Each structure stands twice: as C-alpha cells, then as structure tokens.
Amino acid sequence: MENVFNIKYNARLDRLELPKEKKTSKVLNFIKKHKFFSVACTSFLTLSFVNFYLIYTFMKVLQNI
After folding, report:
1. Could you give the dihedral angle defined by the CA atoms of residues 46, 47, 50 and 51, in that order, rounded to the nearest 10 degrees?
2. What number of other Cβ atoms are within 10 A of residue 5's Cβ?
3. How far apart are CA 51 and CA 14, in angstroms?
C-alpha cells in the first residue's frame, strides 16, 4: 500500500512503472526497522576501532621506552 504514490509514468514506453529502490534507501529502511541491531553493530564497530587504536598507541609507547 505504501508504493501507491511512487508510481511514475514512462512516456517513452507508454506505461506506469514503479521506480527501483536504491541501495541507500534499502539500508536506511533496514536501520529503521532493526534499531537495536543497528545500534549494537555500530557500537561494536566503534569500540573495536577505539580498542585497536589504544593498543597501537600503547605499542608505540612501549617502543619508545
């Protein structure tokens, strides 16, 4: 029912068409539907990058001693 207003008329082919859904809109719809999973994944990735950065800087400090 939500695609009723997305119908476009193609004058070249003389028919009505539904536009294809873009990848970015698919990703945004997935994030909207699965908020907990999205938050869990983004926090995991963020904390992983912070962890690797802290390990890297600690190794540099140890090498300078």
Report:
1. -150
2. 6
3. 57
Query: Which amino acid is residue 61, in one-letter code?
Result: V
Identify whether the C-beta of residue 7 lies closer than 8 Å to the C-beta of residue 16.
yes
- Residue range 17-46, pLDDT digits in tens: 888 888 898 999 999 999 999 999 999 999
Domain map (residue ranges) of the chain? 4-64
Task: Return the C-alpha torsion angle 18, 23, 36, 38, nearest 10.
Answer: -170
Q: Please name the helix (run of DSSP H) or strand (run of DSSP E) that holds residue 10, with its range, or none.
A: strand 8-10
Alpha-helix residue ranges (DSSP H) falling in 6-34: 23-33
pTM of the model: 0.60
The token pair that represents 58 in the structure block: 């600690």
Confirm if 6 and 19 have CB atoms less than 8 A apart: yes
